Amino acid sequence: MTATAPTSTHALLDKHAGVLDEIREALRTRSWYSRYPESPSPRVYGETAAADGAAAFEAHRNTRYAAELVSATDGRWVGGEVSPYGPTLGVEYPGLDVDGALRAARGALPAWRDAGPQVRAAVCVEIVDRLHQRSFEIGNAVMHTSGQPFVMAFQAGGPQAQDRALEAIAAGLVEQERVPESVVWERPAKGEPIRMQKDYRIVGRGIGLVIGCNTFPTWNAYPAIFADLVTGNAVVVKPHPHAILPLAITVEVARTVLSEAGFDPALVQLAAENDGQGLAKVLAERSEIAIIDYTGGPTFGAWLEQAGAARGALVYTEKAGLNTIVVDSTDDLKGALGNLAFSLSLYSGQMCTAPQNIYVADSGVDTNEGHLSFDEFADRLATAVQRLTGDDAKAVEILGATVNDKVRGNADSLESIATEAEGRVVLESRRVTHPAYDQAVVRAPGLVAVDVSREDVYTEECFGPVGFLIRTSSTEQSLAQLADTVHEHGAMTASVYSTDEAVLEAAREAAAEGGVALSENLTGQIFVNQTAAFSDLHGTGANPAANAAYADAAFVANRFRVITSRRHV
Amino acid sequence: MTATAPTSTHALLDKHAGVLDEIREALRTRSWYSRYPESPSPRVYGETAAADGAAAFEAHRNTRYAAELVSATDGRWVGGEVSPYGPTLGVEYPGLDVDGALRAARGALPAWRDAGPQVRAAVCVEIVDRLHQRSFEIGNAVMHTSGQPFVMAFQAGGPQAQDRALEAIAAGLVEQERVPESVVWERPAKGEPIRMQKDYRIVGRGIGLVIGCNTFPTWNAYPAIFADLVTGNAVVVKPHPHAILPLAITVEVARTVLSEAGFDPALVQLAAENDGQGLAKVLAERSEIAIIDYTGGPTFGAWLEQAGAARGALVYTEKAGLNTIVVDSTDDLKGALGNLAFSLSLYSGQMCTAPQNIYVADSGVDTNEGHLSFDEFADRLATAVQRLTGDDAKAVEILGATVNDKVRGNADSLESIATEAEGRVVLESRRVTHPAYDQAVVRAPGLVAVDVSREDVYTEECFGPVGFLIRTSSTEQSLAQLADTVHEHGAMTASVYSTDEAVLEAAREAAAEGGVALSENLTGQIFVNQTAAFSDLHGTGANPAANAAYADAAFVANRFRVITSRRHV
């Protein structure tokens, strides 16, 4: 067997070969790796970075987007984004000519395919590096479309999303590199062995459709966008109609880098739309779309899964779930309560990873501050939330703004839930006044205590600042509920607090049974809501909340195919 | 970062650690590798092996299958296999109690999961080794269910299927091993770094359903069976009702090895059925079935794909296609014709990889024996087929027996196709008399010449001993037809004959465009129908004939999921 070395060359491959080595290794070892500092500090990014980024964001407002975002437009201008903080963005984007755009994307594929995995990966890294340079602009855009507080919008929308992009690039790259480009195969035979040269050619599936969400427009879209690109596909990026700008900037940067690198910018195009236009469905039904990635509600997600299967398209979805916490005991009550309060409060619980269902046994919780009854524990958690979010000016930097009326409705529903479920409102969802944006609707988390028997109440996702404290007969029942409800309804995250190794081991079993990742005894600066690129998988693909994970082999391996040609030599 | 070594131990892991190393390396390099000699010669297998195997096969006949094949039976006995060579097999198999069987399979999963990838792989290798010991018995069973000639039934049903099983084991094993069992993750922070231990646990999806086919009961089922098992799943094996015995023997061996190795045999169970019982559909609709693998007709395959997607099951299908050959020119006419004649004749074209559509330009073919017109080339190919299959006694060892009435109908349809399509019957499908089995219906390949315009005739699969010689305006058009018809209708194989490097390069482009593997200028003992485990992928997953390939990363990576648990250390 002889394998030939990759033959592709490109200036960007020379530039980024070192990065490709780093990210291959980081993925292999699942060790800590970050290319992009997550602190928006001027010491890191320079004294003018924040102001420059804010100005760049402001420059988009009340204009038609200046750079080219599509390769074929229908001539209309679309977009009606309104910031959850109040202001109308007033940005207009070119409408997509679907036929022309898909034709252009198909035309761009052969050269992208023939560039090979390493060149594609290097071009993708360059795109991410250039996105990084616009992190403050993107941070403002994410803040004013998702309602995230600024620091979070900067971090999750900028560096953390960029690291997840690199992770997807690494995953796609190494998966392609597992197949040699060419081998000489030699089969023993009577007399001379039979020798054949076999060339293995990586071929993308075609055009990917990435359907973004309102709350994490970049973070949830980048893994799919870069997984598609690195494996030789083109991408149509369809943002949520309320969160177009962050992905428009992304598409602009990608197209610019592609052009500069000698590729057709039609490989990445924006499919912006007005509210209610239904463009995702139109695109998802096109035979040219070979891969669909979706983050959003379960109803449309389920439709996509079936419609995709009906015509052989791959569909990766992240939908909804019941993120679950089991509290058994702790030797650091203050740390546990502080950590839980922050997880509940961050972005008002509007994260797909925010906890919703907190199981506590009727017998209460043993702690380093003594035994707490169920109700005492509930009240202590309420106090921790109040302490964290009691000061309006400070609270808004954690809570952000509510993104839509559904979330606001959920925040207002605690009293009626408690009445309906014969439970107790442990903490009302407090209305917070934003010192800078008086139109923003800001809500602190509320808590309702209910009995474990009331699955009718707590086994539906109640998105936003609402947590359920669920009284069980024992920690054993709490863990059984974790396994059962996650298996049936899905979850992106789970965590457990216990000082008992046997309980922790049982929790690991329950998490494996339910198919959800488990965090244990988080009391410091790591939160159950957060996952680290290259190390923590986001989602598992093993429960109904998501059929894939960022970014394992299964997320990338089927986005390309291998075409062999063989001949005697 | 520290990664811990795998901690699992098992006697079979000690026994097969060397084999696991060999197959990991063979898959990585895609070099020649075979553990099981494919020649049924007594010099390889011993003087009595053939007779012993035949006797073991005969011992099954007209009995209830002696060994236990299910973990829960409904008390009925099913099975009505009749050999394509004539004899009734008369074997009866226990009917499956679906509820009980799936419950038993689920109960067997935790221990299988906790055994870890290496132990599972070693147990799987032991199963394959033990299947190998029964290759002659299995060869007879494959012959008398599929209609394959004996040597082919031995090779494809025995050693070659076993090598494909090893390939799937290797692919599944290395994909699981890419994820470390445990790492310590260390994030720089002000003061002390944040350190977490992260454990990654491999969890199978649950229960796989493998739906076998009539023509290659073992070869087409083994990749899925062993991919499921090695990645921690249980398997229900649902054979074609006409080809149960080869998979019953397989299930018996698997259950025996599992029991001996300390695992619950419920991990592998047989779902035998009578003709028309519809058990595949019943099983495919069960929520416990997480993975479906299917080889068979496109209608049921498409239903499975949609039904699976509707409830989140993975579905891998191999359906039907138009295997395609383009003849441009050759410097070894005799070798090319001999190779083509054999590919058309082997098992009467009843291989999913057998050629059907042979494109030749109207201007004819340049050869080392001078220029041949389209019709001259067609007649030369007919002569080559006649020469190969002219002697009945020798012919049956290549042709085998026709497997069903559909194939026989296709063989009888040449005259009407030619009339309908204004074409020419180049060669009638000759009726061959089997010297040993007078009830066998044996047919040699027939050839019809038609114009390229008659896509209505040649773009449907005509399974069995029928080849179309399709007259095009040029080799360029031939290659365009290859790309277009394969892209639209699918194909498992393609090949090209040309002495012109530019034509070969264009053929590689057409194959990449259509999404099919290409063989070039086969004139010796390698045939387009045949693929080598560990080196050639079977199918590409890039055209409608199959949505997966044996056995790439995409075939295995999604059969298991990774569940993380993390904690501060």
TrEMBL record, chains A, B:
Residues 97-524 form the Aldehyde dehydrogenase domain. It comes from the Bacteria. GO terms for cellular component: cytoplasmic side of plasma membrane. It holds the Pfam family Aldedh. Keywords: NAD, Oxidoreductase. The keyword RNA-binding does not apply. InterPro entries: Ald_DH/histidinol_DH (IPR016161), Ald_DH_C (IPR016163), Ald_DH_N (IPR016162), Aldehyde_DH_dom (IPR015590), PaaN_2 (IPR011975), Proline_metab_enzyme (IPR050485). GO terms for molecular function: L-glutamate gamma-semialdehyde dehydrogenase activity. GO terms for biological process: L-proline catabolic process to L-glutamate. The keyword Oxidoreductase applies. Signal peptide: none annotated. This is Aldehyde dehydrogenase. It comes from Intrasporangium chromatireducens Q5-1.
